[in-house]
Amino acid sequence: MAAGGETGPAPTGSRGEAPGAQDPSEALVTCRGLRKSFGDLVAVHDLDLAIAPGESYGLLGPNGAGKTTAISMLCGLVRPDRGAVWIDGQSVGVGRAAGKQALGLVPQQMALYDDLSARENLALLGRLQGLRGRELRRRVDEVLEVVQLADRANDRVATFSGGMQRRTSIAGGLLHRPRLLVLDEPTVGVDPQSRNAILEQVIELGREGTALLYTSHYMEEVERVCDRMGIMDHGHKIAEGTRRELVDSIGSLDRLLIEATGDLDSFADRLRDLAGVEQVDRDDATVTALARNGRSVLPQVIPLAAPLDVELLSVEVDEPDLEQVFLALTGRALRD
Amino acid sequence: MRALLLIAGRDLRSRLRDRSGLIQGIGVPLVLAVVISLAFGGGNGDPVRVALVDADESERSTAIADEVLAGFDEVEDVVLTEAADEAEARELIAAGEVGAAVVLPEGLAEALGAGPAPVAAAEGSETGPDSVAELVVVIGDSQPVAGAVAEGIAGQIIAQADQVAFSVAATIELGVREAIAAGDFEAITDPDAPASEAALDDLFSEVLVPPDVEDVAALGERAAEAPGGLVLDDDADAGARERLDAASYFGPSMAVLAALFVVTSAPRALIRERRQGTLQRLRAAPIPAWAPMAGLALSVALIGIVAMGVVLGVVSVALGAQLGDPVGLAALSLAVVLFAGALAALIASVVRTEQQADGLAAAVTFALAVLGGHFIELHALPDGVQTVALATPNGWAMRGYTALAADGAGVGEILLPIAVILGVAAVLALVALPGLRRQEA
């Protein structure tokens, strides 16, 4: 099947077909078997994906993993060799308007006309989304407020910093109140301060109920923004789940670092008896515990200290990150 | 349709704000049109060659031929050569050695003496039933300016003949000439009167070919009955015509160049849209798939038409270029813009970067400009290049513009150039389509 039919996906209820996702029949976005080749290079291998309404989903992977190609097929910009995409129950394809009303795209590039002002850019994008007259003006003003650029609305985009341009670009994706906002590497080329502001705004959009599809090769961004994520490598989705599920899938343990004074030997012995704790080591004023789920163990640690006259100076939970997950899954670092 | 207009409007706005683009697309061809027109006049450095045939071989016709030939002795841009007869003149035209010929017909002397003034007949035109002698002007296909010069020579001969008649008529009616006032008009018109020769010599001293005494009475009667209206070509008019001819050629020439420059900038704009991500954003919007490309095409087509209009308008108003039938001009110009659009599509289908797009567009445009006779008039190009020019749509366009300006052709007479241009445009568009589809996939 080239680009899917006109009707929504058949309800399968099988998590096997859309791993880790909700029932595809209830999903806002469903991709089935998306595949795209460029010559001999298979950029995306049979990608299945489902995103629920209001969910923040991240696609994580190194450069060249196939994230942008996957998103391009999902948004109807690139015709898949096979497979199909449905957004809001409508089949999405190249050259078809169906489903795109529910979609707001923030491409990897700034995707703005730099000889136009921010307001002119947004007005154009709004009109193409079908907004008119007073409603258009109101929405332009609103999204400019959201991205905190109201005071620069009439300035040409060419005079903006990278961060401001990116925020304008995000505003362009929000104009028509899409149910799904697709952000492709939205912090590339942005200074750290602007990057933080952008992430805060994206998280806020997620809180307000907009479903997000967020791609990045920065694991910390995906961890921060997304409820659930898929890891891509060489065109394959090699893992999918919440951060916790992904970490658990590689069998890695959290590390509790406890600085304290007092009878640390007795304290260490008591720690070993806690459920979930698999290993405890003591080194001068520090006790280190390896646990299956460090954050669930933590509430039990504090009550242990007082009866033993141990004074806790600090407690840290060092959890395995997605970098370690990627390393475990591929044998390579994420940024290799 | 709304999306199409929105996208076209946005692109138009950007292009109108892009001063360097406007200068390159419209300003440069406009300046070139003016400079080349003024610098080269009608000659372009290469003399216009016209053959003169005296088929009458009478004393009057020989005198006319000698006067005409002598008159062009010192004119650098025009070379007048004699041919034995009309057939030889046609051979010379076919061989490209001359661009046109003026044939003084058999019976010219008689016509000048007794009948109405000769009628100039460009080849192929119909003459009136009352004509007794026709000055034939044969114009080749390759040197329209030579044709214009030949027509000018013929017109001058006719005007001189009429000048004789009008001089006599004026003399009769006003009696202003001293020679006549002092003498007896009847005596002047009497071939046997002794004063008539001297009086006539004085009266017609500035006339190219003085009439015979016997002809004066008949000429006077004819002139008196003639409605009048013939105008002499004096030196000033001849100079103006040379400059006008250059502007009439190089104006359309540079207008075509302007259209090519402007329209072939579209591939660069398309690649920039891809690079900026704006094209992806447009395609992700709920609009028809064709709208982004069609909007861009509409924008560059409009700018191309405006660019041509500006150049043609300026050369017409400022330099007095004769552009011919406005309908034909518009139809031909529209065909040129469509060809430029198809060429732009072909370029867009094979390039990947803005630099490649710029380089290829410039190379193709200049190659077409040189081969199509945009910097040197087609007739002045070597024969081989003239043949190659037939393979260029813009070369056909120049033929069409020349036909409109020099031959007074209407739209119906330039259908062949228009058809060739549109045909090539269609082929280019078909060739470009698969590449464009691949890029959008």
Helices and strands, with pairings:
The complex is a heterodimer of chains A (336) and B (441).
Chain A: E1 29-38, E2 41-51, E3 56-60, H1 67-74, E4 82-87, E5 90-91, E6 103-106, H2 118-128, H3 133-146, H4 162-174, E7 180-184, H5 192-207, E8 211-216, H6 219-225, E9 228-233, E10 236-241, H7 243-249, E11 254-261, H8 264-272, E12 277-283, E13 286-291, H9 294-305, E14 311-318, H10 322-330
Parallel strand pairs in A: 3-8, 3-9, 6-7, 7-8
Antiparallel strand pairs in A: 1-2, 1-4, 4-5, 9-10, 11-13, 11-14, 12-13
Helix pairs in contact in A: 2-3, 2-4, 3-4, 4-5
Chain B: H1 2-17, H2 19-40, E1 48-54, H3 59-71, E2 78-83, H4 86-95, E3 100-104, H5 108-113, E4 119-122, E5 134-139, H6 144-174, H7 178-182, H8 185-189, H9 196-203, H10 213-225, H11 235-263, H12 266-276, H13 278-284, H14 291-319, H15 326-350, H16 354-371, H17 383-389, H18 393-406, H19 415-440
Parallel strand pairs in B: 1-2, 1-3, 4-5
Antiparallel strand pairs in B: 3-5
Helix pairs in contact in B: 1-14, 2-11, 2-14, 6-10, 11-14, 11-15, 11-18, 12-15, 12-16, 14-15, 15-18, 15-19, 18-19
